[in-house]
Each structure stands twice: as C-alpha cells, then as structure tokens.
Amino acid sequence: MSTELKFFYEVTQHLSGSLQLDKSLKHCFDYLVQHIPIDGIYINLFMQESQEIQMVAHADRQGGQLLDRRIALTPEMCDSLNDRERPPIRILNHISMDGVSHHVLSQLIPGAKSLMLLRMKCDDFHLGVVGLYANQEQSFRARHADLLQSLHQPFSMVTAFNLQGRNLLAEKAQLEAENRSLRRSIDSREDVIGANSGLRQVMEQVEAIAPLDSTVLINGETGCGKEVIANAIHTRSSRANKPFVKVNCGAIPDSLIDSELFGYEKGAFTGAEKRKQGYFEQANGGTIFLDELGELPLSAQVRLLRVLQSRTIVRVGGIEPVELDIRIVAATHRDLQQMVKAGSFREDLWYRLNVFPIAIPPLRHRREDVPLLVHHLLEQFLSRFKLERLPSIAPEQLAKLQNYAWPGNVRELVNAVERAMIQSRGAPLVFDFLNTGGEPEPGRSGGGETVVIDPSRASDHLVSLDTMTAKYIEHALRITGGKIHGSGGAAEKLEIHPNTLRSRMKKLGLM
User: Fold this and answer.
1) pTM higher than 0.85, yes or no?
2) I want to staple 268 with a disulfide (CB 3.0 to 4.6 A). Which of 76, 107, 115, 264 is the partner?
3) Domains and CATH numbers, the chain
4) How confident is the model at residue 173 (pLDDT cuts 50, 70, 90)?
C-alpha cells in the first residue's frame, strides 16, 4: 500500500470511528499531528442565508468539542466564498493573507498564525472548510497540502451526515415539546375549575394578559393553584404550542442555580461531559414559569435581573450570549414588597416582575368552588381506584368541606378527597377527620394541622408518620412566612439543612 493510500485509509478510519463529530475530529487530529505540524483542527460551515460562518467542531491536544459559534460576514466576504474558482486547498502561512480567514480566526482562534484550508462541497455547493492551524508562522509546505488532496469527500460526507443527525435531533426535541404541550391542552380540557365562580376575576385578568408577552407575577398561598393559572396564561397565548417549562426556584440548591437555570458548556466543571441546556434555553420560544421566586438568593436575583433586561443568557463556562424569545411568568406565596423593605429581595427585580400582578384568592375565600373541585377530583380518581361510578357525598359532608378553612388550599383538598376515598371502600364519603369547629382541637393549631409536641398527650387517633411530618413542616413554613433557608427560616427552626428540608418537602408533595 502506497504512503498516500495508507494516509487516506487511516484518516478515513479515524473520521468514521464515531458518530459524534467532536470525537471523530479528535481521533483525526491525533493521527494528523503525527504527519503535519498542527496545533488544532476545526470545521466551519458557511451559512448562506444568514451570511455567517458557524464553527461546529474543534479539536486539539486537550480534546474535541462540539460548538455553535457564529461570526457575521460582509456581502463581499460571502461573494468570495461563493467563488467557484476558489482553490480546493489553500496554504496561508500568514493568516492576514486571506480576509475571510483573518476576520473569522481573529475572533475564534486568535493564537492561530498559519493555516491550511480544505474546502468542503456538497451537491456542488460550498459547505464550508476544514481548517488545520499552527501557532507559528510559515508552518506548512506543499507536501502537507498534497497529503490532504484526497480528503475532500470524506470530510464533506462525515460533516453532512453529522449535521443531518443534529437536525433530526433538534426536530425530535421540537416534536416532543409540541407533544407535551398538546397533552397539557388535552389534560386541561375541563379548563380552570372555578373560572365562572370564585376565580372569575382572576380569569378575566388571564384573558386580558394571555395574548401579550408581558411578564406576569402570580401571588397566592401555597397550594392555591398558581401553576394552573400560569398554564392557563400559556395555553391562551400565541406560544401555546411551544414549551411550558416549570422551575421550582426553592428546590434548587444555591450552588446549582446558575447551571440549572442557564445551562453549561462541556468542560465547565468536573462532570460536565457535554453541553447541557438550562431551563431558560429549554423554554425558548415558549413560557418559563418561575415558581417560588421569593426563595432565590440575592446573588441569583442579580443574574435573573440581567436576563429580564437583555433576554439573553450565557451558559456556565461559556462566553457567547444566547438570545431568548421567551415569556416569563413568576409566582410566589411570599410578600415580595415586604421582602424588598427587609432587604431580602431586590427592588429593581421586583419592579421588572410586577408588570402585571395576579392575586389568587385562597380556597377559604372561594368556598363556592369546593363542590366543583370535589366533583372534578372524584372523576380523576375514578379510574385510579378502579370504580365503576362516582362515590356519593351526603349534603352535610359537602357542607363540612365548604366550612373547613383549608390552610393547605386545593392541595390539601386533593389529599382529603383521596383519603376519604381510601377509607370509604365504596361507601359514601365521610370527612370526619377534618376539624371544622371554631375552636382548635387539642393537639391542633388554628389552621387545622396536627402539631403533636408531646406524644403522650395526643389522642389515640394516629395518622401516618408522613402525614404528621408534612403537617409539621407546613406549620413551620407558616410560622416563617414560607421562608426555607437563611436566618429565621424553617430549616433553621427545624434544625436541619435546607437541602434536606427541600428533599423531604418534595417527597411529601409539598413542593
């Protein structure tokens, strides 16, 4: 086998050795560096419509990377790239010898001094170039270019196939997002329960703001249905067939807030083996719902303010801003204005968020919605409990539900109905476990939750440990105004780590 044929065979084998372009390019670099004095290799695409150069992959001694870095071109530069007389291989021992290469590499690889360009074509169109560069001038000779003569087609095919695969993955992600949106639309076909009664005023506000892209701030007690209202805004907007991404700000540890919200680049930190989109990028084109916004620490509030102002994010470990087309809906059960006065929430962020506030009344202020919600819940539980017909509820039991204070709002009602169905075993539902009297029962707080301090003084009626724990945590949150971490927070009062508390709350369905 001749030297040229062996070289062609080895490069082709390395290029086709992986379905991932970054790995293929790294394998190729490791072989080429044994024959050509290069410090790196990259693949650039010529984006005709947007008049840009897009660097899609790069490899050097440190490793290979998939990239999406774009450089705008002038019309004259585009004409130069479209020139059919442009040679298939070029040696530039001074980058400044070529205007387009100097313009691009001075921004993407400023250390490059010498360059060999291998032109890629697909269906007779200029696809882009493979660039082999060195950090010293006068590094390349004609014999190096001769080695590359036969590699136009392998590089063009591998690049084209990888691009097609990336496009298919992007289309798949888009289809999955649309399917999720469609399922949400189907699942919510009964619409918002109480829209024509206790939530009439709220829904009038929803109908008014949904067609616009203005930021919305939803305020309401825990469990009152803030996510339902946020979803109603999304499904009534022009973004209804785009992603709706919910973020529980209170459930993200402080150290992970940036990487979860904004994503990260490959190699940004130990364990970052590939690029990951953050919640904001996942919601691009649609709506991001920032629940429990009041739990964000001040440091994260600063970065969120920048996103609201610029509608761009920068991934952790990255430098290129990512533009966002996004609708922001935020929610909290806390008094943000009071937090501003206390210095625990930024005033400028509050002004940015409080464009269109919506206050959701607690369930105790819309008791007329209770029968509607109960009927809706029974229909939902019907198949789960494998019942042939809806269980009955005596009028006095329904009255008991309407008279109850519901400190846990709709979330507590869901649990109460489920518990009654479990206990009824097909008989009419009974809610005697609810305290609806004016005076609290022994061992209960005024809100209706069991808080047993001394088990020896409790009644013989026992509830599950999970129920007891959930009630106790809810009680602690009410005492602290919903604050989880920091001085005076529930975690401090319960003497556990905030992350441990969040984990238990999530397990118990409190988040």
Assistant:
1) no
2) 264
3) 3-165 (3.30.450.40), 188-359 (3.40.50.300), 364-507 (1.10.8.60)
4) low
Provide φ and ψ at 327, rounded to 5°: -105, 130
Structural contact between residues 130 and 154, judged by C-beta atoms closer than 8 angstroms: no
At 384, phi and psi to the nearest 5?
Answer: -65, -40
Asked whether the beta carbons of 476 and 493 are under 8 A apart, the reply is yes
Indicate the DSSP class of residue 439: S
Output the pLDDT for position 69: 86
In this predicted structure, the answer to whether residue 166 has a pLDDT above a threshold of 70 is no
DSSP state of 482: T
For the chain, state the CA radius of gyration: 31
The two tokens of residue 24 are: 């293929």
Type and span of the H or E element at 26: helix 21-32
Buried b (16+ CB within 10 A) or exposed e, 80-95: ebeeeeeeebbbbbeb
Provide the residue count of the chain.
511
Residue 234 has pLDDT above 80, yes or no: yes
* Half-sphere exposure for 42 (CA within 13 Å, toward CB): 22
How far apart, in whole angstroms, are the C-alpha atoms of residue 6 and residue 128?
Answer: 26
* C-alpha torsion 255→260→263→264, nearest 10: 30
